[in-house]
Amino acid sequence: MCGIVGLFLKDPKLEGELGAMLASMLCVMTDRGPDSAGFAVYGAGGKDSVKLSLRAARGYDFEGLAAGLSGPANGMPALVLHGTHAVVEIPQVREAAVRAFLAERHPEVAVVGTGSRMEIFKEVGLPSSVAQTFGLAQMRGTHGIGHTRMATESAVTTAGAHPFSTGADQCLVHNGSLSNHNALRRQLKREGIAIETENDSEVAAGYLTWRMREGASLGQALEAGLKDLDGFFTFVVGTESGFGVLRDPIACKPAVMAETDQYVAFGSEYRALVDLPGIAKAKVFEPEPATVYFWERAQ
């Protein structure tokens, strides 16, 4: 049992409140997942730059790392510290060189996610502690997703916490269990998709990345997943411009959504949504089984 939440803003006036709204939703889901928590926020980004969300041991010298990256990044990267995580922003054309440098010289640093707008943070501990540690309530953006984990099939580790990201500006949170993840993991690795953990949810993220790399839209990738992914699942997925939801054909994992002129929100339970503005007048509904829901911001 896990808790998942998501929030997609239609009204730009709410962007400064995204973090506070998402933090409230995440913390309500504590009893569904007290082991670990994480979230992704889609905020501001430069057209020709990319953000790397990095994770290392507590007390790690990220400032020293940033200084070392000035070579492969062709200049001192912008750095924002968040406890055990840091976000560095580099020129997009230097991403491959920076990632190669990190892999060779700093294997102790994990790249949690990359993208022009996406930042990912996750840690072991109660959702309220994780949200506070990373300053979620102060973050702004257009959309975000979050997860509270109760581990069932893999260890309680930060690496096993959600969201999982296997492609640029792509991430996924999952409540459920996939039965064919081992076969899919082998297939995806042959296709060049990097899977770093034994978690079945990372396989689901990798599957969507592979489908989209092959030319599918997020909606088409989710549709294909109904045929290729075996098991029980509710997914909430983020991309640079959009937010998607999918439940398996049986839909045994709880889910509820609310939509107003200002936002679309998702929660594993309705109580995650009750503090949102205008919820009393929102269209509240349960997403249908085997049905893709997707919202995209104007470009």
TrEMBL record:
Keyword presence, Transferase: yes
Record-linked InterPro entries: GATase_2_dom, Ntn_hydrolases_N
PROSITE patterns reported for this sequence: GATASE_TYPE_2
Pfam families linked to this entry: GATase_6
Domain of life: Bacteria
CDD domains recorded: GlxB (cd01907)
Protein name, UniProt field: Glutamine amidotransferase family protein
Biological source species: Xanthobacter aminoxidans
Organism phylogeny: Bacteria, Pseudomonadati, Pseudomonadota, Alphaproteobacteria, Hyphomicrobiales
